[in-house]
Structure formats: C-alpha cells, structure tokens
C-alpha cells in the first residue's frame, strides 16, 4: 500500500556546517596548490633577460598569494586573539590578587622557617659541644632525638619546601667572555646613530623587496 502524499515525511537535507577550522584548512590547501604549481615552473637562477621577466612574474604571484593567505589567516586569528585577550583580562585581577596573597603567605612561612632553622642550628651547636665534653653523658642518639623533638615542636616538618639552584655571579671579571651575550639591539642602535663601537660596524646589503 502506497503512502498518501500528505502522510509522507519530508526529511530536510542537512547542510554541513563550515567551521573556522574547515575554512582555514581550505585556505591552506589552496595555498599549497599554488605552491606546488609555481614550484614546478620556478626559475631558481635567471640566466637571461627572458628568464628574469618570467622570474619577476612568478615572484609577484607568490607575493600576492602570500599576502592573501596572511589576510585570510588574520581574518580568523584576529577575532580569536581578541577573545583570548578578553578572557585573560577577565581573569587577570583575580589571578594577580591570588598571586600577591600567595607571595605574602610564602614570605611569612619562609621567615618563620628561617628563624626556626636558626634555633635548630643553635641547638645542634650546643649539643655538639656537650658531645665533645668527655664528662658529659649525652650520646649521639640522644642528641639526634632532641633535635628531632625540637623540630617537631617548631613544626618545620610541616612546611612544604623545595631546594633550587640559583646562579650567583660574585666576580663578573673572572667569568669567561664566551658566557657574555652581546646586546645586538643596543649595539645596532648605537651604530645607526653614528657611534663607533670597536669590533662592530654597519654594512649595507641589497636584496629583492618582498613586502
């Protein structure tokens, strides 16, 4: 038995939603197609004026393709970057306040721990003096127990600590020259302003303009 026309259910055709990732993939595929096509005909080193004309044409096409690809990329990344900036700015005040409180808390704990360690060190020195005294009946085991008991009373065992290695340059003149990094930004700036710097100079290079 055939269903009546009015009883038939029309199923709408679903259109695939194009996401930003899909659009980006399409643009990349398009750019790679151009690259493959131009790469096959690319003149690496023009040998005459005719080759130079062809090479200039290829160069301009490649520049145009690169410019269009960058524009399409930025059409996707610009709003994403703006959204990311907004999210970071939203969380920033709370993060900064928490970080400040964490530092204050850490400084207080570090100060207490430093004082506690001084007390323990003083106790160790006192006990060491007694251990060196032959007339004193204090034993090493007993001394260790006293230090542990004092540490437990001070609560230093409950302080979460981490040991790190921090570099300290206490005599810069003795550090070998290979460890010093040249500030190229400042050096170039001084050279451009006309300042003479021993061992460095400005040189001019001519190349094909891309941008």
Task: Provide the descriptors you would attach to this structure in a database record.
mainly alpha; 211 residues; 4 helices
Write the layout of secondary structure elements.
Blueprint lengths: L19 H22 L7 H84 L7 H15 L29 H9 L19
Shape: elongated
- Average of per-residue pLDDT values: 86
Q: Enumerate the spans where pLDDT stays under 50 for 5 or more consecutive residues.
A: none
Number of separate structural domains:
1
- Beta-strand segment tally: 0
Name the helicity range: 55-70%
Based on secondary structure, the structural category is: mainly alpha
> Biggest sheet, in brief?
none
Distance between the termini: 71 Å
Order of helices and strands: HHHH
Structure write-up:
- The protein is 62% helix and 0% strand.
- By secondary structure, the protein is mostly helical.
- It has one domain.
- Helix 2 (49-132) crosses helix 3 (140-154).
Summed up:
It is built from four helices and no strands.
């Amino acid at each position: 038995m055939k269903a009546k026309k009015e009883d038939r259910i029309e199923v709408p055709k679903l259109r695939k939603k194009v996401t930003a990732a899909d659009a980006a993939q399409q643009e990349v595929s398009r750019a790679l197609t151009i690259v493959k096509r131009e790469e096959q005909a690319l003149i690496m080193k023009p040998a005459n004026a005719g080759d130079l004309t062809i090479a200039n044409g290829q160069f301009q096409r490649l520049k145009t393709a690169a410019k269009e690809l960058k524009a399409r990329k930025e059409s996707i990344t610009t709003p994403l970057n703006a959204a990311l900036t907004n999210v970071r700015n939203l969380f920033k005040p709370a993060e900064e306040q928490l970080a400040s409180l964490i530092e204050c808390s850490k400084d207080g704990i570090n100060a207490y721990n430093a004082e506690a360690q001084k007390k323990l060190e003083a106790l160790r020195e006192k006990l060491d003096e007694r251990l060196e005294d032959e007339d004193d009946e204090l034993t090493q085991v007993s001394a260790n127990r006293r230090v542990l008991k004092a540490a437990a009373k001070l609560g230093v065992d409950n302080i979460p600590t981490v040991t790190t290695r921090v570099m300290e340059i206490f005599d810069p003149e003795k550090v070998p020259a290979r460890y010093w990094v040249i500030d190229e930004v400042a050096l170039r700036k001084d050279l451009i302003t006309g300042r003479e710097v021993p061992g460095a100079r400005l040189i001019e290079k001519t190349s094909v303009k891309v941008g």
